[in-house]
Fold:
Amino acid sequence: MSKFNLKELGLKDNTIKEFESLYEGMYLGRVVCEQKNYYKVITEKGVISAKVSGKIMYNACSIASYPAVGDWVAMDRDEDAQGEAIIHGTLERYSKFSRKTVGPKDDEQIIAVNIDTVFITMSLNNNFNLRRLERYISTAWESEAEPVVLLTKADLCEDLEEKLLEVSKVAIGVDILVVSSLTNEGIDKVKEYITNGKTVAFIGSSGVGKSTLINKFLGYEKMKVSEIRESDGKGRHTTTYRELIVIPQGGVVIDTPGMRELPIMDIEDGIESAFRDIEELTIQCKFGNCTHDGEPGCAVKEAISKGVISEERYKSYIKLKKEAEFMAKKEKTKKLKESKKGRIKKSGKKDFVEII
Ligand SMILES: Nc1nc2c(ncn2[C@@H]2O[C@H](COP(=O)(O)OP(=O)(O)OP(=O)(O)O)[C@@H](O)[C@H]2O)c(=O)[nH]1
Ligand SMILES: [Zn+2]
Structure:
């Protein structure tokens, strides 16, 4: 008898179609977590251990081509057999939240895939930073999941109205929720997104209260929560790896370790969506090739001088665009090199412990 209904775990019709056409005789599962190349995968019968086939390893172009938390994978061994199942393929992802790895390398690091909603979690005390929020929102739009801004620790905020106004100016077209795990304010609003067949991910800095919230949805303390010094808002990293969690009342949650930085990949489309206010203005500039740097009839400069758009937001937009353009160029060169080389071997070192 089946223990889990895969549709309730987020399986979509397109994935089923793809699976049936490509992986006859195999079975489907969803990656729960990954550590040192070993995967935990949830199937209809329960959670099993798995590893990728030699062929996947051989053909992998980068770490990002390996299965990630939230992926649907095709496996060949019967779930009741002893030992690990072998993953033979990853089904197409309908959304992917990723960043550039921290440090000098330009590799992509996948944070979560196949998510319907990405909760951009930011606390209303020390962690509050609009520029960082813009970075997260841009990445979230690029991911193809629906971004929702989740402002936590409302109980520690004394100027909520003001902060909400500021957030509403940068989170255009994005739902904004305010919660407190201490008073339970707003928790039900978050629950509305976590329903049967839906997958949500909590993303944000360390210590903003992601695990505390997830424990609330679970009804028990699954996720370790570390004490945080409220004086400077700094906390130890508690969540050390990404994990997919099935919520008993329905829905799937992906918890991710707190991020210190969010270096971006080539997310130009995401930036366009996040900064649609500025993008719309650029079309109104007198000159089609306006650089918004002092030309006459510049709608962007005019909006800034009138206070419609803040100078800081505009600078943030330019900075992100430059970063994304740089990454786009890098990606292009890298793809060219890869196609010449054929493949890249995965190094043994993995990124599951996220001290970043
Ligand atoms: N005052 C207050 N404290 C909270 C709230 N939510 C969480 N905290 C506290 O904030 C600290 C960090 O919470 P976590 O849930 O571990 O934060 P996290 O985002 O999961 O952190 P990482 O696992 O490091 O990414 C703990 O001391 C919590 O008790 C809240 O709504 N109000
Ligand atoms: Zn202009």
Q: What stands out?
A: The longest strand covers residues 27-35. DSSP finds ten helices and 15 strands in the chain. Residues 152-153, 155-156, 180-182, 206-212, 225-228, 235, 237-239, 257-258 surround guanosine-5'-triphosphate (ligand 1) (CB under 6 Å).
